[in-house]
Write a structure and sequence with these properties.
mainly alpha, Tetracycline Repressor, domain 2, elongated
Length: about 240
């Protein structure tokens, strides 16, 4: 019995090959389905459009990078781990550079809705890269880290696309510099958020003490008024 066709991956592979051969803007879903050897109905079942195929491609790259992580990598400093992970990502993307140039030239050929989904996908990828390097990505600080990492990756990606060196040395050097600068800002943000958190904690404690004191005073007033009200009620009873 022949193996079941992996349609999503077949569509991704076909789409990237077509993008490398001609303008991404001119690639249609029918082209992709035919190149993948599947019906248009099968294509419809597995993707919403070209933008969806690109998001699946990014997820595939994410998984390839994460699958290659070694347990020993987690013993390295976070800065070094992050450089290794991002460079591993560029290595995984290397075979697709012609296609990526075509896609970027057409700006992904995305409409507004797909553009928003693409941004969300890239933020998700950077979250995983940071998490894999041991950085916390939760809360406001984590969100700022993800946004900064997305910007750094975009600058390095632009250089990497035309980096003709065998080891992508210029790209790695830029990444190292950008991450070093970001680390300084990250420390300042962490310090600032820590101060803000402590200040909010103090304000909250003062508020709760004030509320408790006011509540206690109200109870004492109510207790003091109750006997007088009871006495007045007895005197007027028939």
């Amino acid at each position: 019995m022949p193996a079941k066709k992996d349609i999503p991956n077949a569509l991704i592979t076909a789409a990237m090959k077509l993008a490398a051969d001609k303008s991404w803007h001119d690639v249609t879903l029918i082209d992709i389905a035919q190149a993948a050897g599947v019906t248009v109905a099968d294509c419809y079942d597995h993707c919403r459009g070209k933008g969806d195929i690109l998001r699946k491609f990014i997820h595939r790259i994410d998984r390839d990078v994460l699958a290659d992580l070694d347990a020993e990598d987690f013993n390295e400093p976070g800065h070094d781990r992050l450089i290794a992970i991002v460079m591993a990502r560029f290595d995984a993307l290397a075979a697709y550079r012609p296609a990526l140039r075509s896609i970027l030239c057409a700006r992904g050929d995305l409409g507004p809705a797909d553009s928003l989904r693409a941004i969300k996908t890239h933020f998700g990828s950077m979250r995983w890269m940071l998490d894999a390097a041991g950085f916390r990505t939760g809360g406001l600080h984590g969100s700022l880290r993800i946004a900064a990492m997305t910007g750094i990756y975009a600058r390095c990606f632009k250089l990497w696309l035309d980096d003709t060196s065998t080891d992508f040395g210029p790209t790695m050097a830029l990444l190292d510099r950008e991450l070093s600068k970001a680390a300084t800002w990250d420390a300042r943000v962490e310090k600032g958020l820590g101060k803000a958190h402590r200040l909010c904690g103090k304000i909250s404690k003062k508020y709760h003490r004030f509320a408790a004191k006011k509540h206690g005073s109200s109870q004492q007033e109510t207790t003091a008024q109750t006997p007088a009200q009871t006495s007045g009620s007895s005197a007027t009873a028939p």
